[in-house]
Design brief:
about 500 residues, alpha+beta, Serine Threonine Protein Phosphatase 5, Tetratricopeptide repeat, SH3 type barrels, Ubiquitin-like (UB roll), 4 domains, 5-stranded antiparallel β-sheet, 5-stranded mixed β-sheet
Length: about 500
Amino acid sequence: MSLTDTIRQWDEGISAVDRQEWRTALDCFTAILEPTSKICFNIGCLHLLLGELNQAETAFDKSICRDEHLAVAFFQRGITLYKNKKYEEALRDFIEAFNRMRGNQLIDYNQLGLRYKLSTCQVLHNVALVHATIKKWDQAEEALKKALTFKTEAKPNFVDQALEAVVKQELFQLLQLPTGELFRPKRKIVAQLEKQDFLGEAKVVASIIDKDAFSGFAPLQPQAPEPAPQKKAPEKFKTLEGAPHRVLFNFIPNNEWELEVQSGNIVFLLKKGQDNWATVTFNNETGLVPYNYLEPLELEKGEKSPPSDIPAPPRTTAPERPASVKGENLLTNTSKQVLEPLKMILSQDHPMPVPTIVKVHFKYTVAIRVKPGLSHSEMLAVIGKKLQLPEKRLGLSYKSQENGELIPITSETKMKNVWTEVRNQRLTIWCKFLEVVALFDYEVSVPADLGFCEGDIIQVLAQVNNNWLEGQCKGNTGIFPATFVKELSMAEIMDSGM
């Protein structure tokens, strides 16, 4: 079977799936002589949908043999084995699917033609279900807690519901692909299989010449006499103002005030500044161009010279200034009133401080212009106002230039160290919430632990390690597992703090 026939047969099977004609679709896929991993996957999904578990297992075996990195095939074969009550084999397949995820939160198969995103939470959810089915409740709880580390806010709360069922030692629902979601061929490839007529059909065109009875082939003849060419009136070169200049070199602007011109363009000079920049107009646009890039146009032959009635410039020298207006008396009373305060400012020993740009990394990044040397409380107030959040619920950190570690800013002394990290009036600060919300109840097992109930708000004091935090709740202080809490969302912070 050629590749064209395979794609056409594949597309017919998908069309039958869209009509929910499962058996017809299965016949289309099984008719393909050399099925790929995707086709075998589709065959296995249809057998699984029809309840033919042994045939589905065989099809998924072929799919995995052709592509051993297809995590969704291991996932579907695990579902088939679980429904066939082969729990140990199903557990191995779900674990293999987890390994094929390679630490990613999800794999989007849309580019391969499967409109589905397989998440690590779903795989670990089914791993926990197999453990729960064979009465290994501790392993089931461990798998679900591991799934929480991969969980995102956009995902449904099926992991939380499963964890509640495990605590009660009850089974929960098996997760599987939606009905009818199969690998589809790309629409561009399918569209190229259709026959296309690039030449089209021959058409008869009537002649516009009255009483034209000629038929056959003849040289192309003009259908109507062309009008005699008329002499075009000469155009006048007009400009409203400015002296014409020719551009000598290409100029590319660096800001919005400069004007792009090319070598040979004719521009009109409006004004020449003392800084060697000229204001010119070109193509109804005005901008700045370096004056040494321009060359004035000389008068051509036939053009009139300047009028002779213009008086010559004076040749006598200017008289000497009176002694009463020499030196310091040159300033008028008005200019003295303006410049005296400026002299007082410039004569001060302490120059005006240059503001510092503080880049704050939060759930998003903002930039704030502040006065250098702010205290810890002042910096919190500025950042809290910018983020529109209560400053008492924010924690600041900075990265040391020596070892690159994030150091919490907890006192005024630490804040003084922060200002030593300023480079080129730039400073970077990391900001996060100091409060988290409890996901589950946590009972105290040793005196150093911090107990709380689900929904309690906990103020984080420090991070012990990657798995444990130190915090305060209801007047008590202690450590607690980091997986038992989550950061408050923006809406929760606004509702509880403002």
